[in-house]
């Protein structure tokens, strides 16, 4: 039984209710939750005192984290009931997924949320028109509605409206059919379209009255003229006009496909940036009729809303996922930004570009160069320039006159450009225009991690790293690196000027929408060095592959040295302890490796220790804080802490005499062995997970490495007795199978564990 159907069955079947009562007794809703999710509906209460609403809220935790669900419920409850969500339902959904739609709407109703539903009936109308012998006629995606078509359309809308209302009522959800009185319209073009209306006024009182009475408003898109003539209005148009008046938190379009699909590739479109793709999209041969009108209406709607607003097109079964999780579903349509390539620097808006560079270009901010000097240098060279319409991003690629790869010499963006993913759009356009590209990062460049994720190869000399992509000829790569080695001796060699990492950390959000999973990264060094930057001159492109390439699957992350400040006491320690001080002065550390918690189990990426040692509460707290800072802007991300500081460490002054006690508890710590997983995360791209673990590694005073979920465990116990190793080999892996060890019990390792010690 699906999640939605399960929520309905809870209130109807006593046996299910009793079973859930016993299972939910262990995880009761916090005291404040009942007041938080109160709504105008009256819900049943079972014998255990747990309301049906609370039970359904618990079921929501199956589609997302508890924090996500409670956050969205609190967010949706903070506005008027009629401003929660506007859901436009396609006619095909009413035919094929009526039960799923009714269950999804009932699910929302049971937690006190009241979505406003506007539905169409296009497929049903086409079927009846075909039976009546009426040939559908369209102009510019708008159905021409004559008297016969209007008569059939009115009956179809009423029937479909009542069908949805009855389906909701059968599930115990109060719903009110509203077939008219909300939209007032005039003729759009009576000679061309006949009885097709253009909405001039929206009466929201009928909608608000329905919600005040505790019923979901179910609207058709039929409108009336001031004289009482019924006019046909496209449901997408009606939903857009209603959204402009009500300004709901969510605008959701439901269709049977679960999104928009490309007419030629037949693949679902994940994101549409209207500023960049709108005009070209309308010219596509597969964009016609209702699809064209839908895109036009969404475009007009978003033009009247903030640039951060968006519209989602999803299926009925994923409605709850769209509303209560960060990841969402279906096709996301937003305004985005238009990217303009230029080859003539004189066509740039000098004033807006000056503002961008003076505030964001590291070289210009530090006074190493000036805007006027740089713009003058562009006129004397062959370059290709990329910028958006708002001048939130500026990139320059130097094109070589002779052989060699093009060179990325500047990539600067504002915080707004990073948050709106403009940087990734520009990068994709650069990759489309240049099949090969090279750039260099210096030692202190904040963008080096971003560069590693987008490069096919790299080579580090001194404090400068050469990156490239698209070059498959090793001889050519060797020439690049040879020239790069010559340039590395020149302190004035050009460096790629970029602020992408600073802008992304300032906005606490990363921007790449393309997953790099499965791409092999190569480097001539065995570990990723601290962030570096530096680049050879733009006229002389990369060179020389002196060393043998080695794949970097799990680079070692070197820790930073932390200052032990006694006054920096984190609130990250046990709430209560039986003994506040440890009886022994030292705890044993198993240097041979850990037998448990050595693989990424809960998430997709993790941070693993490369040596045993003690980690203080201060270090764990700092690492936890920076990981959350990196993951916070990414919807759907989750963070897991696998180590907790539960051991007290006490100290006493140098002049304290023997027998005067252990001294006060200085801090709490945890003792870990080699191979222990400290942190895990999931729900983000690999580069984001790596960045989160990278910054956390600098807070931990041990050598660590980045690991992935299905990766072989490279850290094996080295000093275990032979019979223990044999015991581990024979144990079967099924989740966490427990087996008897030398001292008590221990948890068996998964099969990928390298048992050859």
From TrEMBL:
The keyword Transmembrane helix does not apply. InterPro entries: AceGlu_kinase-like_sf, AcgluKinase_fam, Asp/Glu/Uridylate_kinase, NAGK-fArgBP, Ribosomal_uL16, Ribosomal_uL16_bact-type, Ribosomal_uL16_CS, Ribosomal_uL16_dom. Keywords: Amino-acid biosynthesis, Arginine biosynthesis, ATP-binding, Kinase, Nucleotide-binding, Ribonucleoprotein, Ribosomal protein, Transferase. GO terms for molecular function: acetylglutamate kinase activity; ATP binding; N-acetyl-gamma-glutamyl-phosphate reductase activity; rRNA binding; structural constituent of ribosome. GO terms for cellular component: mitochondrial matrix; ribonucleoprotein complex; ribosome. Residues 337-492 form the N-acetyltransferase domain. It comes from the Eukaryota. Pathway: Amino-acid biosynthesis; L-arginine biosynthesis; N(2)-acetyl-L-ornithine from L-glutamate: step 2/4. It holds the Pfam family Ribosomal_L16. GO terms for biological process: L-arginine biosynthetic process; translation. This is N-acetyltransferase domain-containing protein.
């Amino acid at each position: 039984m699906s999640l939605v159907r399960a929520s309905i069955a809870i209130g109807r079947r006593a046996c299910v209710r009793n079973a859930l009562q016993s299972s939910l007794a262990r995880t009761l809703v916090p005291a404040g939750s009942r007041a938080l999710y109160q709504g105008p509906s009256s819900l049943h209460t079972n014998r255990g005192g747990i309301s049906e609403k609370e039970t359904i809220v618990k079921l929501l935790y199956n589609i997302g984290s508890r924090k996500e669900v409670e956050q969205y419920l609190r967010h949706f409850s903070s506005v008027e009931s009629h401003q929660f969500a506007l859901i436009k339902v396609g006619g095909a959904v009413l035919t094929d997924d009526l039960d799923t739609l009714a269950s999804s709407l009932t699910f929302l109703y049971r937690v006190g949320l009241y979505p406003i539903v506007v539905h169409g009936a296009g497929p049903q109308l086409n079927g009846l028109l075909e039976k009546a012998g009426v040939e559908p006629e369209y102009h510019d995606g708008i159905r021409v509605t004559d008297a016969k078509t209007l008569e059939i359309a009115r009956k179809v809308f009423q029937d479909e409206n009542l069908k949805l209302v009855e389906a909701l009522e059968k599930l115990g959800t109060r719903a009110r059919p509203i077939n008219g009185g909300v939209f007032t319209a005039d003729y759009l073009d009576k000679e061309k379209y006949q009885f097709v209306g253009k909405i001039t006024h929206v009466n929201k009182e009928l909608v608000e009255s329905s919600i005040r009475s505790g019923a979901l408003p179910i609207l058709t898109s039929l409108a009336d003229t001031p004289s009482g003539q019924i006019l046909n209005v496209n449901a997408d148009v009606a939903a857009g006009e209603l959204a402009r008046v009500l300004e709901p938190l969510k605008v959701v379009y439901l269709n049977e496909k679960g999104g928009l699909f490309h007419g030629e590739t037949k693949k679902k479109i994940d994101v549409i940036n209207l500023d960049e793709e709108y005009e070209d999209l309308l010219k596509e041969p597969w964009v016609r009729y209702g699809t064209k009108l839908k895109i036009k209406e969404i475009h007009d709607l978003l033009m009247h809303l903030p640039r951060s607003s968006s519209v989602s097109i999803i299926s009925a079964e994923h409605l709850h996922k769209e509303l209560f999780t960060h990841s969402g579903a279906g096709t996301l349509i937003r305004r985005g930004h238009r990217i303009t390539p230029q080859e003539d620097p004189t066509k740039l808006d000098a004033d807006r570009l000056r503002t961008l560079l003076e505030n964001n270009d590291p070289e210009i901010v530090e006074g190493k160069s000036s805007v006027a000097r740089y713009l003058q240098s562009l006129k004397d060279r062959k370059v290709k320039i990329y910028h958006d319409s708002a001048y939130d991003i500026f990139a320059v690629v130097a094109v070589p006159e002779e052989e060699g790869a093009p060179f990325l010499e500047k990539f600067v963006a504002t915080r707004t450009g990073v948050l709106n993913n403009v940087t990734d759009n520009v990068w994709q356009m650069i990759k489309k225009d240049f099949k090969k590209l090279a750039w260099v990062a210096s030692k202190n460049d904040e963008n080096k991690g971003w560069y590693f994720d987008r490069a096919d190869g790299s080579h580090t000399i001194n404090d400068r790293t050469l990156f490239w992509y698209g070059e498959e000829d090793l001889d050519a790569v060797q020439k690049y690196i040879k020239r790069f080695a010559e340039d590395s001796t020149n302190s004035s060699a050009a460096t790629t000027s970029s602020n992408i990492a600073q802008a992304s950390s300032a906005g606490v959000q990363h921007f790449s929408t393309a997953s790099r999973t499965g791409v092999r990264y190569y480097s001539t060094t065995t570990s990723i060095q601290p962030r570096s930057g530096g680049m050879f001159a733009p006229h002389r492109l990369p060179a020389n592959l002196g060393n043998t390439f080695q794949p970097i699957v799990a680079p070692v992350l070197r820790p930073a040295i932390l200052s032990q400040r006694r006054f920096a006491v984190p609130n990250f320690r046990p709430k209560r302890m039986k003994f506040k001080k440890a009886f022994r002065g030292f705890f044993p550390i198993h240097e041979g490796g850990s037998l448990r918690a050595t693989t990424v189990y809960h998430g997709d990426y993790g941070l693993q220790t490369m040596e045993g040692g003690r980690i203080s509460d201060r270090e764990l707290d700092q690492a936890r804080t920076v990981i959350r800072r990196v993951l916070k802007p990414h919807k759907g991300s989750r963070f897991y802490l696998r180590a907790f500081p539960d051991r007290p460490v006490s100290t006493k002054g140098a002049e304290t005499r023997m027998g005067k006690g252990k001294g006060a508890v200085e801090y709490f710590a945890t003792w870990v062995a080699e191979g222990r997983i400290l942190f895990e995360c999931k729900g983000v791209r690999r580069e984001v997970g790596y960045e989160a673990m990278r910054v956390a590694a600098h807070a931990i005073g041990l050598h660590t490495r980045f690991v992935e979920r299905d990766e072989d465990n490279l850290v094996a116990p080295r000093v275990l007795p032979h019979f223990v190793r044999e015991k581990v080999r024979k144990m079967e892996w099924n989740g966490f199978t427990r087996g008897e060890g030398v001292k008590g019990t221990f948890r068996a390792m998964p099969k990928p564990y390298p048992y050859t010690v």
